[in-house]
Each structure stands twice: as structure tokens, then as C-alpha cells.
Specification:
The chain is mainly α and about 280 residues long.
Length: about 280
């Protein structure tokens, strides 16, 4: 009997079990954390302001049809919320293990780094998804009030694209979090690049070089709002100035490549970094 208990105690949990346990407890930590409450408050503030402004001023262009309504409400802010959620949830996900020395006590145990990385990634993805769903739910409730049960299918597509974009944003933030050993650095660099940097680079490339910025993540995310526009925007040139618009396929490919490459690089950096 004692031998059986000893053998059971020495059995190392499978990789999937380790991923699930890491995800479960990390997700609980995220939901209990102040950052999650702050994100929900931001969502509520934006939603309450939009609700009040639409109800009070009843802007004609926004209330003409359901597509214009959701394009203005969801399409205008969803990408920003994805980026904000990614920075809040993934900015220090790995760097915190080094800064707080928690990884120093975890790694000597039979826990694979890959399982820890994937579990934390899934937990961040789950917590950020709750934020997106909360914003979408309030938008839909307002839409039901003004238009009844008339949900355009483009809204579902836009949400799926935003969800996919969230994977790429988290892949990028996890990569930077694996690169730095200080949470503040990883969060700051993630925020600057995703909120400001990519947009500036994209604008400069389009305006000065007149080149399609297909290698910029923010350019690929344009499909989130573009799909809510009928007809779908296309690349056009007016007065010598070209305005680029990614097709749905191009956008998905850009987002997918960013997700795969950055998530893999982040895992590689985490596997090779030593805890001191």
C-alpha cells in the first residue's frame, strides 16, 4: 500500500493536466486582480457614455440602420479594447515570474515551461474575452432597443476577427514579457508599440513611401471595422494619394502570422531564460 502511494506521488502530471491547472489558477488570479476590474470599468464608462450620447442626440447617420450603428459602436472601439486587454493581461504574464521570483520556486517542480506558458496564455485569452463579450453585450442591448432583433451577420464576423486579433496581440505581449525581466518595462513597451507605435509607423509608410503596410499588425486588424462597411472598402487612389485597405484574407493572414511567430518566439525566450 505504501509502495503504491509512493508511486502515485512520483507520477508527473501530463502536459495537458499542467496546462489546465496553470490556466485555472491564473484565470482566477486575473479575475480577482485589480486590472480586470479596471478594464471592466473602462468598458462600462465607454458604454455608458455612448448610450447617453446616442439616446440624447440621436445622431442620424448612426441610427439610420443596424450596420451603421454597430460600425460606429463596435467597430470604432473594439480594436482598442483588444489592444488594451492584451497589454493588461499579457504585458507582465511572464516578466512577473522573474520579477516576483515566483518562477524560481515553480520551475524546480516537475512543471514544464511550455505548459506554464500555454496555461498562462489561455488564461489571459479567457479573461480578455470576458472583457470583449461585456462590451459586445452592451452594444447588442442598445441595438435591440433601437432596431429590435435585427443583428447583422457582419457583427458576428467582426467579433470573430477581433477574437482572432486578440490572439496575435497576446502573442506579441507574451513575447515582450518573455524578453524582459521587469513587468513595468514589458507593459510599457507593449503599450507604446501596440497603442501608438504601430499606428504611427503605418501612417508614415502609407503617406511617405506609398507602400501597403502589409507587415504591420494594426493594418491587418482593419478588417474588424471594414467588414461592417457595405460595400467593403478597397484600396483606392485619389489625387495621387493611395488609401490602402486589407482584404479579409490579407487581414487574417497578417494576424495569423503575427500570432504564430510571436507566440513561438515568446515560448522560445521563456524556455531559454534562466531564473536567478
Amino acid at each position: 500500500m505504501a509502495d503504491q502511494e509512493t508511486k502515485s506521488a512520483n507520477i508527473v502530471p501530463s502536459s495537458m493536466t499542467q496546462v489546465f491547472v496553470t490556466m485555472k489558477y491564473t484565470l482566477l488570479d486575473y479575475i480577482r486582480a485589480r486590472r480586470f476590474a479596471i478594464l471592466l470599468i473602462i468598458v462600462l464608462i465607454i458604454s455608458v457614455l455612448l448610450t447617453f450620447l446616442v439616446a440624447h442626440f440621436r445622431p442620424k447617420g448612426l441610427l439610420d440602420n443596424t450596420l451603421d450603428f454597430y460600425s460606429s459602436w463596435w467597430g470604432s472601439f473594439s480594436s482598442f479594447l483588444v489592444v488594451l486587454s492584451g497589454v493588461f493581461m499579457g504585458g507582465d504574464a511572464i516578466a512577473g515570474e522573474f520579477q516576483n521570483k515566483t518562477g524560481y520556486f515553480t520551475i524546480p517542480n516537475p512543471v514544464r515551461r511550455s505548459s506554464m506558458y500555454v496555461g498562462k496564455f489561455l488564461a489571459a485569452f479567457g479573461a480578455a474575452t470576458v472583457i470583449l463579450l461585456a462590451y459586445l453585450a452592451i452594444a447588442v442591448l442598445n441595438g435591440l432597443y433601437y432596431f429590435g432583433a435585427n443583428l447583422p451577420y457582419q457583427l458576428g464576423e467582426s467579433f470573430l476577427f477581433a477574437w482572432f486579433y486578440l490572439l496575435a496581440v497576446l502573442g506579441f505581449t507574451f513575447m515582450l514579457s518573455s524578453l524582459f525581466k521587469t513587468s513595468s518595462y514589458s507593459i510599457l513597451v507593449s503599450a507604446v508599440l501596440l497603442i501608438i507605435g504601430f499606428g504611427i509607423i503605418q501612417g508614415v509608410i502609407e503617406a511617405l513611401a506609398n507602400i501597403e503596410p502589409w507587415f504591420i499588425l494594426s493594418y491587418g486588424s482593419g478588417i474588424i471595422s471594414n467588414v461592417l462597411t457595405v460595400p467593403y472598402p478597397s484600396t483606392i487612389t485619389r489625387f495621387g494619394v493611395t488609401v490602402f485597405a486589407p482584404t479579409v484574407t490579407e487581414g487574417l493572414v497578417i494576424i495569423g502570422i503575427y500570432f504564430v511567430v510571436t507566440a513561438a518566439l515568446g515560448l522560445l525566450l521563456f524556455e531559454r531564460k534562466e531564473f536567478n
